[in-house]
Amino acid sequence: MIQxxxxxxxxxxxxxxxxxxxxxxxxxxxxxLRAALEDHSKVAADLGGLxxxxxxxxxxxxxxxxxxxxxxAEFAVCALSxxxxxxxxxxGMHHVLRIHGELPC
Amino acid sequence: MWHNQAILTDTEFVLHGSVGELQRLAAETAxxxxxxxxxxxxxxxxxxxxxxxxxxxxxxxxxxxxxxAVQVRLQLLNDGVHVEYADRGRPFDPLTAPEPNLDASLxxxxxxxxxxxxxxxxxxxxxxxxxxxWNRITMRRPC
Lengths: 105, 143
Fold this sequence. Notes:
The complex is a heterodimer of chains A (105) and B (143).
Chain A: E1 2-9, E2 12-21, H1 26-39, E3 42-53, H2 55-70, E4 74-78, H3 82-90, E5 98-100
Parallel strand pairs in A: 2-3, 3-4, 4-5
Antiparallel strand pairs in A: 1-2
Helix pairs in contact in A: 1-2
Chain B: E1 11-15, H1 22-35, H2 40-59, E2 70-77, E3 80-87, H3 114-122, E4 124-131, E5 134-141
Antiparallel strand pairs in B: 1-2, 2-3, 3-5, 4-5
Helix pairs in contact in B: 1-2, 2-3
């Protein structure tokens, strides 16, 4: 199960992600992030409510980052919990993503 | 004086070849960890490792749509959780799969290979063998 919310904060369009980003829900996450990038030039994924992520979830975030790069938009991920951050770190995501402890906005 | 103590048993479950089974995989793993008083970090890691092997088998190993495609056994011993994972997919040895290039740029980065990389990062004593129609992997999560 994954829950996605959208709101604007200080010029950033923030997609709030709660629950699990796994092989079953990753497509929904990728679609939400891509849709946000269609209409907004500064998009942040707030992962503060994310309990679990697998490589399928990481791929959704990577694809969003690629889409952002393709259209010169800013994309950041924020507020990772320690277990989620561990998966990002093991995967070398800090090489290719802007990762913030707090929301950038 | 005798104390009442729950008899701890191994957990075994079978999964069909559908990503819809991921919810059951997560629930079975959570139950095992709760029954053995294992923390959230162990549960997260076991769930992650099993999901990666399972989704590989379904997405790339021809297990999609297959009944009883995957068997999992979890057992808590002194040196951690011992995991036996088996699938009826095409032969695939996760120990010899190439490592993804984690330093690559966004443009160059391949999306494949991450799952197996995570399995190898988290687990110890990984062994693979092909037995008949089955890929069999044994491994240990220290705790």
